[in-house]
Structure formats: structure tokens, C-alpha cells
Specification:
single chain, 473 residues, alpha/beta, 7-stranded mixed beta sheet, 16 helices, globular, binds pyridoxal-5'-phosphate
């Protein structure tokens, strides 16, 4: 492609993107395609000869778009959002145009220094402990793996990296509501899934800290090594928040690594009124949250903070001859701060977002989401045919359809499952589900960048209509 053609096509692409956003509410939020539907219409071989941009885009419209689920639609209320924003998209355009591979400082000094700076900014906005150091990871799953590997190395005197596993039995503690990425990390780090100790939760779905301490003591008596406690700030099921302060004290008492998984909920910590409720953060060893979930920064961008930076770097550093530079020790070579060698320039979009919005606007947006969640919660509570299944802590409402005379739990579960599928198959709205104490639970998450009150009220109307279809008195 010559530059003249690129210029023309790029202008067209921007128009395409703007049209897409202007019409986004008209698409079925959840893609309605059947398995293999996309695969089967695509040609079996790549083209031998050049094709026109026009043809490629027309096939994109006809063949690809229908298999897209519209995560940026304000009718998207499933899972947790992966919310983007226009300033972030602009930065991604630049990032992809520059196409830098930012593995070390030398390979693009600005990428390394901007990364350090924006993570300092975030630390300040969120009032995180000043002795933490930050690095951007691709996802929270990777950050948690880094935390556990660093803990493993620190507590084995960096011997497992050198000699391999020595059959020490490490134990990792978390609650039954913990995200699956913890178990995945434990499998990968060689500690074995059976050593993930899932502690039951209390009435707020937060880890029962007394039971946790008993488990740790029992393990010590049995000559097992408590390695790490994982606290969750905003669980995936119900956004419950573990008692960080108590967990921090327990971690200190038994010499374990406290990692905080705040993948989703962390963004709310930019609100001073929320931040002041989180006590004991300084007791943690590491912390991760995803600006790519609820801070208007395109996927992927995970902010990972660690107290003992030296141990992190010691765990991951490698120094083959071809990567030796004169600046070692003077600058951050982020390839030593995590698993991959190659790194995208992710700090740029965070910089654009923080500057374009400003702290105040970012706060207002999150506050709006919390208020909308409160409105939706009240609609649920005030309707006798619905039931709230967990306390509202952030912006995720856990509820179910429960017609007043229907008591049978199995029937309620299958009714709610049918309702959810029917809603999602119509494409006007996208919700997801979880199970809370055996109850099939609908989750309504309000965190999309452009979600407004009218979307939330519309969602409630659609849910109610669909429920009535399935259960008429
Ligand atoms: C989303 C989520 C994760 C996983 O995040 P990725 O960035 O996709 O790896 C981990 N923990 C919690 C609590 C989450 O909500």
C-alpha cells in the first residue's frame, strides 16, 4: 500500500468508525451467529493475488460484523465491561502506527519513561502506598501469575528458578469467590491446584478471615508452607470486597505474600469516598487493577504494583548478550518485570485517557455508574416478582426473577436461565449470570463508557417484559 492510498483509506476508516459508534445501539449486542457460521463462509485458502480494500471492507461488513459482540454498546451489561473511549482509540491508532516493540528502555525510551510516569500518576490519584512500583501487564491474569512467581522465588531464596522445584508444599489461600485466574496461575507456577485453599465467605461474600487463620495454622502444623493470600477487591460474581486490613495483618503474622486482585473494582479507588473505605492497603505486597475494564482505556492494559520491586526483577530478569545495553541499572527495562519479552506501548493510551478526561471527569463517570446501579437496585427491590441476591457494593446488581408464588429452587433456576437466554438471543440487551449459593443469578453490570439512565431503564423494561413472557399468572 502506497502512502497516498493509505491516507485515503485511513480517512475512510475513521468515517467507518464514527458511523459504527453512531449506530452502535442498533446492532444486536450479543452476536447472534451459530457455531461455525463465520468459519464456513470464509474461503478455505488465502488469496494468491492482491485484493482491493473496498472488497475487504465489504466482506468485513457482510461476513465479520455479524459475528461481533458489541462490547462498546451501552446495552452491554454482561461480565465486566472492557470499556474503550475515543481518546484511547486515538492513542491506539498512534501506537499501532509507530509499531514500536518496547521490551527495553533502548528500544523506545519514551515508552519506558511514560509507563513509569502514568503509573505514578495513577498511584497518586488512587492514593496507593508511595513505596509501590508499577508496571503495565497485558492482563490481570498475568499480573497475578507474576505476583505468585515472585512470592515463590522470594520464599525459596530464588532457588526454584535455579534448580527447579524441590517438593516443598506451598499453600495459596483465597476465598471461594476468587477469580479463576488464581487457580490458573497456581497450576502454571508448579505449586499444584490442590494447594489452592478456598476459604468460605461470610454474609457479604467476603473471605471469612477467622476460618482463613485456622487453615493457615493447620497447614503449619502439617509442615506445609503458607506462601500467599489472595484478597479480592470486587469479586467477579458479586463485586464483594475482602477485608484487606485483617488479611494484611494475617499475612504479616505468618510471613506470607498478600496479593490484591482488584481487576475490576480497583478503578473505583479513584473516588476518594470509596478509597477511604479500603483500609490496610500498605500491608499488601502486590496489587493489580485493569484500566481496560472500568477506566475507559482499550483492552489490554493492566496496572500492576509491587512493594518489593527488586524481588520482582530478580524473578524475571534475563540478560542474553544481544540484550545488553549501556543503560542497565539507570533505566527501567520492563522485559524484566514480567513474562513476555516483547511489549506493546500501552502507556500511551493511558496517558491520553488521563489527560483528555482529567481526574475530575473520570471520577464523575464512575460516580454516575454507581448511581445508576443504585437506581436499578431499587427497581429490583421495589418489584415483588424480583429478588436481590447480593448486597450492592459497586455497580453490579445480582438478582433473579422470582414470581411471588414460585418457591421451588430448581424451577426458579431453570426459569431464570431461560429468561437470560431469551433476553440475550433478542440482542437488545446483554446480561450474564453467576450462581450464588446454588441460585441461578442474573448479573446487571453498569460500567459501559456511554451508558446513561435511559439505557438502564430500557434494560429493566426488557427484562420485565421477557419475564412476563415466561411466567404469566
Ligand atoms: C476480570 C478479572 C480477572 C481477569 O482479568 P484479565 O485481565 O482478563 O486477566 C481477574 N480477577 C478479577 C476479580 C476479575 O474481575
Amino acid at each position: 500500500m502506497k502512502i497516498d492510498e493509505f491516507r485515503k483509506e485511513a480517512y475512510k476508516m475513521v468515517d467507518y468508525i464514527c458511523d459504527y459508534y453512531e449506530n452502535i445501539e442498533n446492532y444486536p449486542v450479543k452476536s447472534q451467529v451459530k457455531p461455525r457460521e463465520i468459519f464456513d463462509v470464509l474461503p478455505s485458502k488465502a488469496p494468491m493475488h492482491q485484493e482491493e480494500m473496498k472488497q475487504i471492507m465489504s466482506d468485513f461488513d457482510a461476513q465479520i460484523m455479524k459475528g461481533i459482540t458489541h462490547w462498546q454498546s451501552p446495552h452491554f451489561h454482561a461480565y465486566f465491561p472492557a470499556n474503550a473511549s475515543f481518546p484511547s482509540i486515538l492513542a491506539e491508532m498512534l501506537t499501532s502506527a509507530i509499531g514500536a516493540q518496547c521490551m527495553i528502555w533502548d528500544t523506545s525510551p519514551a515508552a519506558a519513561e511514560l509507563e513509569e510516569k502514568v503509573l505514578e500518576w495513577l498511584k497518586d490519584i488512587m492514593d496507593l502506598p508511595s513505596n509501590w512500583s508499577g508496571v503495565i501487564q497485558d492482563t490481570a491474569s498475568t499480573a497475578t501469575l507474576c505476583a505468585l512467581l515472585t512470592a515463590r522465588e522470594k520464599y525459596s531464596n530464588f532457588e526454584i528458578n535455579e534448580k527447579g522445584f524441590n517438593h516443598q508444599e506451598f499453600r495459596i489461600y483465597c476465598s471461594s469467590e476468587t477469580h479463576s485466574s488464581i487457580e490458573k496461575a497456581v497450576k502454571i507456577m508448579g505449586v499444584g491446584k490442590k494447594n489452592v485453599v478456598k476459604i468460605p465467605t461470610n454474609q457479604w461474600y467476603a473471605i471469612d478471615t477467622e476460618l482463613l487463620e485456622k487453615e493457615i495454622q493447620k497447614d503449619i502444623e502439617n509442615k506445609k508452607n503458607p506462601l500467599s493470600i489472595i484478597a479480592t477487591l470486587g469479586t467477579t460474581g458479586t463485586t464483594s470486597i475482602d477485608d484487606i486490613d485483617t488479611l494484611g495483618k494475617i499475612a504479616k503474622k505468618y510471613g506470607t505474600w498478600l496479593h490484591i486482585d482488584a481487576a475490576f473494582g480497583g478503578s473505583a479507588m479513584i473516588l476518594p469516598e470509596f478509597r477511604k473505605k479500603i483500609i490496610g492497603l500498605e500491608l499488601a505486597d502486590s496489587f493489580v487493577f485493569n484500566p481496560h475494564k472500568w477506566l475507559f482505556t482499550n483492552f489490554d492494559c493492566s496496572a500492576y504494583y509491587v512493594k518489593d520491586k527488586e524481588s520482582l526483577i530478580k524473578t524475571f530478569s534475563i540478560l542474553p548478550e544481544y540484550l545488553k545495553t549501556n543503560n542497565r541499572g539507570l533505566v527501567n527495562d520492563y522485559r524484566d518485570w514480567g513474562v513476555p519479552l516483547g511489549r506493546r506501548f500501552r502507556a500511551l493510551k493511558l496517558w491520553f485517557v488521563l489527560r483528555y478526561f482529567g481526574i475530575e471527569k473520570l471520577r464523575n463517570k464512575i460516580r454516575t455508574h454507581l448511581q445508576l446501579a443504585e437506581i436499578f437496585k431499587n427497581l429490583v427491590i421495589e418489584n415483588q416478582d424480583f429478588e436481590l441476591l447480593a448486597p450492592l457494593t459497586l455497580n453490579t446488581i445480582c438478582f433473579r426473577f422470582k414470581p411471588v408464588f414460585l418457591e421451588d429452587e430448581d424451577e426458579l433456576n431453570s426459569l431464570n436461565e431461560k429468561v437470560l437466554n431469551a433476553i440475550n438471543n433478542k440482542g437488545k440487551l446483554y446480561l450474564s449470570h453467576t450462581k450464588i449459593k446454588g441460585k441461578y443469578t442474573l448479573r446487571m453490570v453498569i460500567g459501559q463508557t456511554n451508558v446513561e439512565e435511559r439505557h438502564v431503564l430500557k434494560a429493566w423494561e426488557i427484562i420485565r417484559e421477557e419475564c412476563q413472557e415466561f411466567f404469566k399468572y
